[in-house]
Amino acid sequence: MLELEKEVNGVVITFFSTASAVGKTLISCNMASELARQGKSVCLVDYDLQFGDVCNYLQLLPKNTIADVQRGFTLQGDACHVEEYLTPYEYRGVLFYVMAAPRKLEEAYNIKTEYAIKVIRQLQLKFDYVIVDTTSMFSVLNLDLLDMSTIVTFLGIVDFIPTIKNMKIGRNTLNELNYDRQKLRLVLNRSNAKTRISIDDVEKLLGEEFYHILPNDFRAASQSIKDGIPLVLKQEHTELGEALRDLVLRYTNQGQMDFEEDDAEEAGESWLSRIFS
Ligand SMILES: Nc1ncnc2c1ncn2[C@@H]1O[C@H](COP(=O)(O)OP(=O)(O)OP(=O)(O)O)[C@@H](O)[C@H]1O
Ligand SMILES: [Mg+2]
Fold first, then answer.
1. Which ligand is nearest to the CA of 54?
2. From the CB of 111, is ligand 1 less than 6 Å away?
3. Where is pLDDT greater, at 70 or 269?
4. Which among 15, 16, 25 is the best mutation to test ligand 1's pocket, defined by most ligand atoms within 8 Å of the CB?
5. Dihedral sign, CA of 219, 220, 225, 227?
6. % of the chain at pLDDT higher than 90
7. CATH architecture type of domain 11-276
8. pLDDT for 271 beyond 50
9. What SUPFAM superfamilies does the database record attribute to this sequence (predicted)?
């Protein structure tokens, strides 16, 4: 664990979506791994409080969870140190820490937003990066997380019309929050999955191009979960692993320049935009 308090707050990257099973957990585990591989100090926080999967995807058996931290705060107040409740993930010399989701539903139900946010604020003082996995809903906790994040990754997939409708609602709602343009990043996952809906049409509907596109690779994704090893840490080369690394490079400003001036295309007359306009 880090010995010294950092002078600046760490970067908070939150993964959010308006549909479930779009890859929030898989991608947040990979982002934490890749940042740690680059030598950054990283904590991955599982705020899918009721049904968190981070520890399953990484095959971790946490001794403590966010529920224990909340008990700590209630008993000890500010003497409670969040870093004592973390679980390390280590693979081939790459190390990062995980704040696990509660084990029981009733514990998850009783987590107070106030404490959950306090945890992130403490972690920001200790780590270069705090990666937060969330649920797909506009809850009080998620809105507070979005507000305090440095970067919000709004993840989408192009599969069925209702998913796209919800992505549009989500995007519009996030726009209303008036975040800095650089803060909100629209990322498409599973891009080449079989679907009759074109990415172009979806971008026109959303009025914005995707910041980054990740390919569909069911075999690689499920094997990495089965092994408990994120794709970016595997020796085997996969297109998805490469695309995940590129995403992290862009987030750390080592990749191609972010956002061209004219990247926000006006919504055109596609069949999708006619349905939803
Ligand atoms: N690019 C991809 N290609 C193929 N399969 C993928 C890809 N990304 C994620 N998956 C698969 O999709 C499923 C859902 O992924 P994940 O659990 O990360 O989504 P989620 O958004 O966290 O879901 P939830 O909202 O339920 O928490 C997993 O089985 C995962 O292996
Ligand atoms: Mg998840």
1. 2
2. no
3. 70
4. 25
5. positive
6. 81
7. 3-Layer(aba) Sandwich (3.40)
8. no
9. P-loop containing nucleoside triphosphate hydrolases
